Amino acid sequence: MKKCRKSDIVVILCIIIAVAVIFFGCWLKLGKVQTQPVDATVNSSTTETTAAQTTAEEKVSETTTETTTETTTENTTKEESTYAYAYAGFDPVITDTTVPFNRLLVNRDYILPENFELNLSTLSEIGSGEKLDSRVAPYYIKMFNAAKAEGIILTPVSGYRTYDRQKINFENRIAVYQNQGYSKAKATDLAAQVILPPGTSEHNAGLAMDIVSLETSFENTAAFRWLCENAADYGFIMRYPKDKTDITKITYEPWHWRFVGIEMAKDIKSSGKTLEEYLGAYESF
After folding, report:
1. Which residues contact residue 285 at a Cβ distance below 8 angstroms, ignoring those fewer than 6 apart?
2. Directed axis angle between helix 222-230 and helix 137-149, to 10°?
């Protein structure tokens, strides 16, 4: 057997090294190919996770915004509903007190401002302690004396009322209906058809007088017939007619007479309108 020469050994080693280099290079390439899909998957997963987190944050933000908006709206509504009898659906606006006093509209939808002031006169000239607006009192006295000359006594029963007195009367009436089994809201609504809430009554403005009686049977008296025929000549109208309760929202009151001035009273009488209709305020009801 021949001995291997050094040169042969060197050649063999070179071949082994070359093969090793080629094999190592192939292994590196294979490793890169396998690594890339893994990186892509990781990146994709990371992106999806980030997107999901962002979407979740956006939903939380939207929910928070909606909740805040709803809460704000509820708070605003509550702030707007500060009227004492809002629970029964009442929400009167402040009436315009800059109009001529005889055209002042006061009812369940139009309330006097808190700072409303007026000058009052006592009807002492006709032996009564009742009061009216000082601009109205002379007309009532003239009407009283004219009726008296014909044998009719128009006894003043209730003229000006303070806010506090009106409140007591109104809440006493609410209590009556509650004692009959009605809910507070329903009792308040029923009470307002008989006695208006404080600040919404013409009595609080000193513009109206309840005459002789507070019973509907008053319509059968000579005094009532006289008023129907002559009151407009002194500036007074029957404020709550029997056939207009759907407009006035008040039960028929043949005893309640409101001063609107002679010319206006005659116009309203001839037209058959209520004050709301005459002033064009009925549509807002």
Report:
1. 109, 247, 249, 276
2. 120
The DSSP annotation for 54-123 comes to HHHHHHHHHHHHHHHHHHHHHHHHHHH--STTGGGT--PEEP-TTS-GGG---BTTEE--TT----EEE-
Task: Tell me phi and psi for residue 172, to 5 degrees.
Answer: -65, -40
Give dist(CA 227, CA 14) in Å, integer.
138
Q: Which residues are catalytic?
A: 253
Domain at 91-284, CATH class: alpha beta
All residues at 6 or more sequence positions from 136 whose CB lies less than 8 Å from its CB, including other chains: 206, 207, 235, 259
122-144 per-position pLDDT tens digit: 999 999 999 999 999 999 999 99
Higher pLDDT, 284 or 122: 122
The residue type of 115 is N
Res. 250 pLDDT band, cuts 50 70 90: very high
